[in-house]
Amino acid sequence: MASSSDPWTREYNEASKLADDITSMISERSSFGSGPEAQRHSSAIRRKITILGTRLDSLQSLLTKLPAKQPLTEKEMNRRRDMLGNLRTKVTQMATTLNMSNFANRDSLLGPDIKPADAMSRIAGLDNSGVVGLQRQIMRGKIL
């Protein structure tokens, strides 16, 4: 079992507390009825869900870096992966409850998904000014 001073465990416990907070906020949501207060409450829930999603991404990143810094048994790694997966599922369910369709694929907010190989083939042979020009065209929406 990991010690409480382990950064991954601390971060996971904070994320878990945030998930519990969001769950209680969702259950309170019906008491607000409708109107500006209900909208503010829903916005606060959405904001916290987004923050929690970012924390889960950070936990995933920490998990991949841990074996080099802190040797863990395979059993412990699997346990942490399962914990992270369960929390991610819970967050996705919360987002679904609030009809946050974009949460599942936050990358879609940045435009169409482009595979790295496709992006690399587009800039092959371009100098710095060519890359900047391509970026400007993409930002203007002329090239997708």
CATH architecture of the largest domain: Up-down Bundle
Binned, the helix content reads over 70%
Total strands: the figure is 0
> What is the CA-atom radius of gyration, in angstroms?
20 Å
* Overall average pLDDT: 80
Q: How can the largest sheet be summarized?
A: none
GO biological process, one term: vesicle-mediated transport
Keywords: Protein transport, Transport
InterPro entries: SNARE
How would you characterize this protein structure?
It contains 5 helices and no strands. With 144 residues, it is mainly alpha-helical. Helix 1 packs parallel to helix 3 and helix 2 runs antiparallel to helix 3. The chain has 2 domains: 103 residues, Methane Monooxygenase Hydroxylase, Chain G, domain 1 (Up-down Bundle), CATH 1.20.58; 34 residues. 70% of the residues lie in helices and 0% in strands. About 5% of the residues have low confidence.
Provide a compact summary of the structure:
Helices cover about 70% and strands about 0% of the residues. By secondary structure, it is mostly helical.
Please tag this protein with its features.
single chain; 144 residues; mainly alpha; Methane Monooxygenase Hydroxylase, Chain G, domain 1; 2 domains; flat; transport
